[in-house]
Hints:
Blueprint: H1 7-23, H2 30-51, H3 57-69, H4 72-76
Helix pairs in contact: 1-2
Amino acid sequence: MALKYGGLYKCILECREAAIAVTQPGRESTKLTTQRLAFIDRRLSDLLPFLTQQMPDGERVMWNDMLASRSTEIAYGPVYRLTEEENL
């Protein structure tokens, strides 16, 4: 999966593109910026189980509850669904 989607390099690139879009209003559409952020969210969410293996259970539960209270549907709406590019 990581190689198929560009892994962390793709996340970093998308993050930088989103930051450029935010700091240069009008550079790209809000929808595209939101798609970039949703992509980063998905990839990092995929990595969470591996990156938090050593985290104490109580702390992991706390963070997961915080993420659940800010659901992807609330944050990104329908943009969160996989795009055609990610299905390749």
